[in-house]
Amino acid sequence: MSNVLTGKALIPGSVTATVAKLEEPISYWGGMDTETASVIDVHNPQCGIRITGKIMVLPSTKGSTAGPGAMLEIISSGNGPVAFIVLSADICTLIAASVAHEVSGIHTPVIQVDHHQFEQIHHGETWCLEGSTLVRITYNLDA
Amino acid sequence: MLFLSQQDKRKAAGGYGEATAFAMSQLITIAEMLDCKRLIDVTQVHLVGSYHSGPANISLLERLVEQGAKVVVPTTLNAGSADLLHPQGNGESAPFIEHSCEVVKLYQSMGCRAELTCAPYHLPTRPTLNENIAWAESNAVTFANSVLGARTNMSYQYLDLFAALTGRMPEYGLYLPKNRAGQIHCDLQGLPHHWLSTDAFFPLLGYVLGRNCKDRVPVITGLPASTSEDQLRALSAAASSAGCVPLFHAVGITPEAETLNAAFASKPIQDTLLITAEKILQARSELNTNVESRTKLGAICLGAPHFSVTEFRHLLTLLRGRSIAKGITFLISTSRHNYRQLSDQGTAQQLKLLGVEFVTDRCSYYGSPFEEAIDGVILTDSAKWAYYGPSNLNMPVTFARLEDCVISAVSGQLCIDEEFWRV
Hints:
Chain A has helices spanning 28-31, 67-76, 91-104, 115-120; strands spanning 4-6, 8-11, 14-21, 32-33, 38-39, 55-58, 83-86, 110-112, 126-130, 133-138. Chain A is an alpha/beta fold and 143 residues long. In chain B, 39% of the residues lie in helices and 13% in strands. The N and C termini of chain B lie far apart (56 Å).
């Protein structure tokens, strides 16, 4: 297992935080509570987890095209994730992060990784993101 | 490497004002992230987000308005979650309604038209073959791509607004002809013939496509030449609710599928999905939610997406002057545009006399659409309503043919003709 990964920084930045990982795609609109910043889609295996202050790792978004509006509210209220790690160049996440930066001044990096790298990042671990480099700081021994 | 025109550069540099510069710089950022080669013109935009989602959204829109933001192409607003023409009986709080009105007003001051409909293809601005547009409502995207042959992706919120403020969009996805070719053949040849000409078959077919095609472009063979626009519309709505199908082709019916070969852009067929009667019946049973052994009729909800003028006329014919039974709510969602036409023709008044109620601007599965609590099953002829209704309202919902909805409404009892679906 590699402790250093090189992704693609879609929105570059630098941050160290714990990972909140969603195994399946989510709709930000309807799938997340914009006030508590938690996953409320009952069909999602990670229903109930809160993403505030975490590195939010997800394969992609799905569903409603109104997703950027919901994530904009979460980020701008100060309850957002500190970064996103995504499998695809997820337009919904990119728009949310980009617009939220303009509206609230809060910068949320977005890093794209491949399937192999995605599998190596586990819920509960601490990772340090620096540009396109991802470094594991602590392991989740249960994962 | 992204190529920008001189005008794109001028827009980004502030030559067209601060709001345009912001919108263009956001489009360029997204285009670069998607590795697009260029931006393209869009002729019209249909925006999501015409409701209150929170304070950050309002402050973004206020800032754009202060900066003098104006749309540069015809731009319409999607249905929201409140009926602003009839604010009482929305089942939403007064502050929510106020904020929703504020959001709509902010968009209007940018030059957007408050049509508040999920059926923008009913408006006089209906796009045509090969026209590049930026629409954001899922059923409308599928209908525009598939039935009209216009080109659009599912345009995300704010990306749609930036397109409206600049008239430009990153060229990706379904704007590129190579991504419009069929990817999976959906064959209907084994199905009972009488199903293929009945309205209720189309939402069920759409549901099956949504569930089975994932991100692939389906090519349907076996639909009769008599297939109507409303039937294709119901198929579009169901496919985009149950899954992500922004484009399908129907051979001999839709504009980019004159032949099977044309629909696949002369490429070999890699995958075939046989649409069996079992799959259709399975879809029908999955669109019965929370019903269990309930036998009491509660309400009928039609119009997801917004009911068309031809659907209203058809309903009037089926009712044959009979009134809705006492205690039964018969609710139809439609657009302001269609409602005006119905009122001008006297159809709205005729239907109201028979007990039909109208909702405009929104869908009846948001908030609580009913003046009094509903005790019993809700019938709908829309797979989209049957898909979203139960979780939004926590009520028992059954998908049914419009004929069954009407007989049930008139008699006040659940009357479903099971014989029709027997194979």
